[in-house]
Predict the structure.
Amino acid sequence: MTFLDDFFVRAMIGGLGVALAAGPLGCFVVWRRMAYFGDATAHAALLGVTLALATDLPVVLGVTIAAIVMAIGVTLASGRTYAVDTMLGVASHGALALGLVALSLLPGVRIDLSGFLFGDILAVSRGDLAFIWGGAIFVAGLVVLRRSTLLLSTLNEELAVSAGVNPARERMILTLALALLVAIAIKAVGVLLITAMLIIPAATARALSRTPETMMVLAVLAGAGSVVLGLEGSLHLDLPAGPAIVTAAVLLLVVANAARIVKARARR
């Protein structure tokens, strides 16, 4: 496919793949108030980079392992000795700091951290596209197929138990999906911007939606719109691509809320 020879086309396709996965998953993150959990999992990605460099594993595999271990560890430890928000704060900042320290201690390793922190979507390769879209389809499909049980356990855990749903299992499914999203998105938007792509499109969709299903669809569309607008802005205004995508997402959020306010006033 010769059109994939264009780096900008590959960037656009890769970004749309991230939006496909982040949209429905981000809705559950918003409903469950798990934004800080996303931060902790994303920051663990730097530990995964260190693991990959130290063991000659592919970076994507190292990131996936670290994100899954962090997500499961925080899930199991939260609510015991410390409150959930305390554990997430420790995990988030601790993982980021440990990752940076560990990278500095690796002998003979010199890497550009800005690519991992802020992403380098313009450098996405064909192999990256296969991984991004394969992971995105899996994550989006998993969340959509289990939306009923996930939503029930999100709204009322006692009701979920009475209906035969295991809330702990549903939380773990979300946790693993979130870890996989971190792995597929790190190349596109980087560690520091992954949570933004989860939360902001979902928040935009929430301002315009009446049903959970509508919100998930609109979250995907808002994420896709952010990718298109951000990359076009990056191309024409010479902006860094990852931050430009998140800035576009914020602008869409502002427009969505302005439209909601105008519509509410018109009904009065």
Q: What stands out?
A: The radius of gyration is 19 Å. The chain has one domain: 2-189. The mean pLDDT is 84.
